[in-house]
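Form P-L/3: holo structure prediction, ligand uracil.
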Amino acid sequence: MSGEGQRLQKVLARAGVGSRRTVEEWISAGRISVNGSTARLGQRIDPASDVVELDGSRVPLGAELVHYLLNKPPGVVTSAADPEGRRTVLDIVDIPVRVWPVGRLDIDTEGALLLTNDGELTFRLTHPSYEVPKTYLADVAGALGARAVKELSRGVPLEDGMTKPAEATLIERSTGGSLVRLTITEGRNHQVKRMFDAVGHPVTRLVRIGVGPVSLGRLKPGTVRRLSMADVRALYRSCNL
Ligand code: URA
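OUTPUT (holo model):
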């Protein structure tokens, strides 16, 4: 089939096999076949009738993509399995298809975590080049001054380089502690905690309240909600999908 159908890498990414980029690498490496012949990059297929294999085993196409938002409680690990046997985010939800978490929240961090089987969306939401904003509410030690807010906004030096400009808003301040809303477009390891450490105000509690256009709202800790079609489309737009 040529000229018609859908691009192979797009079909495979949509089926939750891997990101488009990963799939392209597999095609280039000759690991994918269509109807028994080694696939070519850019090849078009009909997902309803063509048989696609990865390393010789058939890939089910057309699986339904699902997207959930979890309000992650503290004390659970953001991974599909934990070698130390701790509870994971997948242990606490009841979702009938295989999903995985998009990115990571630290074990003590709470709030918005997407769970999905959408490989391309996962790739884009976690890749820094798409700059999808993530918003956090941070309780921090001490009274945060205007200078620290400015530093957080402009960028602070971390051991892996300056942070990109961010949006920092002081919500409450007292000598006992401050509450700050911080929106960042990167996702380095422990980034928010390291940013506040760098300005001398360690985080005492961290809650993610939004991922791109999707907000936590009133979702109860430990529960999930299936994203609406409008949410998913807004997420797609946020990363040019
Ligand atoms: N930044 C952090 O420091 N921790 C998180 O869990 C998320 C962002």
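COMMENT: The domain at 133-211 is CATH 3.30.70.1560 (Alpha-Beta Plaits).
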